């Protein structure tokens, strides 16, 4: 597995637009503190000069005379993360996007196409620099945890050979373990378990008592470098689409212009939707979902967009800010599309573009094939 890390991606994007920002302390303004401006993200140069996220801006300007405070552009950052995903899909179909600027991809099986894995990983880092101008680091290992930590060693490419995963992880502090809950990390710290080496010899039964029976097996595999997760596909299956929208700053449900955004998504691919699911997350991370009924899918896009908005407002009753919205669609003429289509279905496939053009021309009317119109 290859873990790729583009450090400080928002600052790299800013420096790519304005070369004068390089080698200066930089920070982004917190969009949620308009009355008393504070810093949101701070780059390494700024942290070295004593700046920190949450610091009042006037105090930060006095502490670092060369500080440049930038306006946040979260939508640009998410688009850059999408560009990173598109770049990785050229090399492998399997992978998982992590935090901003981080990704984990599976390279096993690509040797016949691109050559040795280490050479492929090095080429990926070089091509990412040539194409986007982003400096990146890579970590190559059979263990996902070892690969992720190796990427943060900040060498051009850090390789952990097979069988050396446990010894590589042993001196690492537990705070570098991805997604370890703070309360569990604090419990380990109180017991004197501060490094990977302290947890590696702990029996599974004891580890289950310290955490729980569900988390313990996965945690043991990660600290020993024995985790070999099966990564999902980076791309959607044929006939499926996913549209995401991160709200920055988070907004109240009635302030989310979901109908207009969903109408754009529905018009981006005017085929007939076979399934539709709307998902959204609060600022506390709690997920919510709404599934469109079959009768909703036969309505025109204008009507369906309004129903999406109404369902969202009806279900978003908690007075919490909305952080992220996602629309998942399955396209097709009321049926699944097989990987190898029967030749008898060629006429149906030719019918779909015609229906798409009619839906764009008459957005307020339901344009359906004859058999679906009779059933609806």
TrEMBL record:
<dbReference type="Pfam" id="PF00817">
    <property type="entry name" value="IMS"/>
</dbReference>
<protein>
    <recommendedName>
        <fullName>UmuC domain-containing protein</fullName>
    </recommendedName>
</protein>
<feature type="domain" description="UmuC">
    <location>
        <begin position="13"/>
        <end position="151"/>
    </location>
</feature>
<dbReference type="InterPro" id="IPR043128">
    <property type="entry name" value="Rev_trsase/Diguanyl_cyclase"/>
</dbReference>
<dbReference type="InterPro" id="IPR043502">
    <property type="entry name" value="DNA/RNA_pol_sf"/>
</dbReference>
<dbReference type="InterPro" id="IPR001126">
    <property type="entry name" value="UmuC"/>
</dbReference>
<comment type="similarity">
    <text>Belongs to the DNA polymerase type-Y family.</text>
</comment>
């Amino acid at each position: 597995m290859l873990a790729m890390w583009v450090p400080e991606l928002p600052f790299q994007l800013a420096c790519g637009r304005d070369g004068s920002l390089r080698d200066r302390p930089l920070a982004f303004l917190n969009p949620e503190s308009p009355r008393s401006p504070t810093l949101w993200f701070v780059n390494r140069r700024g942290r070295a000069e004593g700046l920190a996220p949450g610091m009042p801006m006037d105090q930060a300007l006095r502490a670092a005379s060369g500080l440049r405070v930038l306006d946040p552009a979260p939508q640009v950052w998410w688009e850059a993360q999408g560009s990173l995903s598109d770049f990785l899909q050229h090399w492998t179909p399997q992978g998982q996007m992590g935090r901003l600027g981080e990704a984990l991809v599976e390279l096993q099986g690509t040797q016949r196409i691109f050559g040795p894995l280490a050479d492929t990983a090095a080429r990926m880092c070089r091509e990412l620099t040539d194409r986007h101008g982003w400096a990146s680091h890579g970590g190559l290992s059979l263990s996902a945890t070892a690969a992720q930590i190796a990427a943060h060693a900040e060498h051009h490419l850090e390789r952990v050979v097979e069988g050396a995963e446990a010894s590589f992880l042993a001196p690492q502090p537990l705070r570098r373990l991805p997604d370890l809950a703070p309360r569990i990390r604090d419990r380990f710290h109180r017991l004197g378990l501060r490094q990977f080496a302290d947890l590696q010899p702990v029996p599974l039964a004891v580890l289950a008592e310290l955490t729980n029976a569900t988390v313990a097996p996965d945690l043991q595999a990660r600290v020993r470098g024995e985790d070999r997760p099966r990564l999902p596909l980076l791309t959607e299956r044929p006939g499926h689409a996913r549209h995401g929208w991160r709200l920055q700053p988070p907004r109240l449900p009635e302030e989310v212009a979901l109908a207009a955004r969903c109408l754009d998504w529905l018009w981006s691919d005017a085929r007939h939707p076979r399934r539709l699911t709307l998902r959204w997350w609060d600022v506390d991370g709690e997920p919510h979902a709404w599934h469109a009924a079959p009768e909703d899918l036969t309505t025109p896009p204008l009507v369906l967009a309004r129903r999406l908005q109404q369902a969202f407002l009806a279900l978003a009753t908690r007075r919490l800010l909305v952080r992220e919205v996602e629309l998942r669609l399955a396209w097709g003429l009321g049926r699944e599309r097989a990987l190898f289509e029967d030749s008898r279905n060629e006429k149906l496939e030719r019918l779909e573009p015609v229906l798409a053009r009619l839906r764009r021309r008459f957005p307020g009317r339901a344009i359906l094939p004859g058999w679906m119109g009779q059933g609806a």
